[in-house]
Amino acid sequence: MNKSLDMGKGSILRLLMKYSIPAVLAMMVGAVYNIVDRIYIGQYVGENALAGVTVDFPLMLAVMAIAAMVESGTASLIAIELGKNNKRKAGQYFGNAIGLGIILGALFIGLIYFNLPGIINLLGGKGAVADFALNYMRIILIGIILQIIASILSSTVRVDGQPNLSMIAMIISALLNIVLDYIFYWENENGCGRRCTSNNYRPGKWIHNSGILLC
Predict the structure, then answer these.
(1) What is the pLDDT of residue 145?
(2) Whole-angstrom Cα distance, residue 83 to residue 73?
(3) What's CA 198's distance to the chain center, in Å?
(4) What is the three-class DSSP state of 50?
(5) Number of folded domains that form the chain
(6) 53-74 burial string, b = 16+ CB within 10 Å, else e?
(7) Is the pTM higher than 0.85?
(8) Segments of the chain with pLDDT less than 50
(9) Which pLDDT value is given to residue 104?
(10) 3, 159 contact by CB (below 8 A)
(11) Which of 24, 28, 25, 37 has the alpha carbon at shortest distance from 177?
(12) What phi and psi values does residue 126 have, to the nearest 5 degrees?
């Protein structure tokens, strides 16, 4: 974690550019996920599936909020300890954050999975739209814990003085998302049928999200 010591040295402008540019680029690339997914859904599945994804979006925002809560607090605590050169305490905070992320993710999955039909109905999902929303969210729930952990890791490596690593992981996963979406949709069009597309393309997304964990 010695790269983190650079925060106390050098030009403020240089440090600002070093950390802000990768963060902005990573956020822009992150937006590609939803854009690409919705393009494929709209083109290959139809308006009901696209509406189903929209119905599920508040639940995905809730996951993002949980991840942001854990990662923001963790990054702040780790940055403070690294500023004190207390790497042991920083490591403890990191381990606690991973454990908390897993617990909160598991609680969210349990709460949503067993009440999903009612929640979808409450969010406005009816008929065919509700069917797509249910199928989509059931697959999404498989990767909730991974998404939370990936967010924690992304923030942690930035605090550790490696913002480029977080950006590179995001870019690689976004490119894999495009490729895997195409593969799953292509297979769908040539085999398993239109209805199962909403089930098939999301597992691919969580496969490439694991790339963040490997970096």
Answers:
(1) 92
(2) 16
(3) 18
(4) helix
(5) 1
(6) bbbbeebbeebeebbeebbeeb
(7) no
(8) 1, 4-5, 189-215
(9) 95
(10) no
(11) 37
(12) -130, 150
pLDDT of residue 111: 92
Token pair 């930035």: residue: 158
Full domain range(s) for residue 82:
2-214
Task: Give the C-alpha distances (Å, rounded to integers) separating 145 from 14, 107, 151, 200.
Answer: 35, 10, 10, 19
Q: Which residue has the tokens 């550790």?
A: 160
DSSP for the chain, please give it.
Answer: -GGGGGGGSS-HHHHHHHHHHHHHHHHHHHHHHHHHHHHHHHHHT-HHHHHHHHHHHHHHHHHHHHHHHHHHHHHHHHHHHHHTT-HHHHHHHHHHHHHHHHHHHHHHHHHHHTTHHHHHHHTT--HHHHHHHHHHHHHHGGGHHHHHHHHHHHHHHHHTT-HHHHHHHHHHHHHHHHHHHHHHHHHIIIII-GGGHHHHHHHHHHHHHHHHHH-
Dist CA 164 CA 170 (whole Å): 10
**Separation CA 144–CA 109 (nearest Å):** 7
Which structure tokens are listed for 118? 């009612």
77-116 pLDDT, tens digit each: 998 888 888 889 988 999 999 999 999 999 999 999 999 9
Q: Show the tokens assigned to 166.
A: 């977080």
**Could you tell me if residue 126 is left (phi over 0), alpha (psi between -120 and 50 degrees) or otherwise beta?**
beta
Q: What is the pLDDT of residue 1?
A: 45
Residue 66, token pair as written in the block:
């949980």
If you count them, how many residues does the chain have? 215
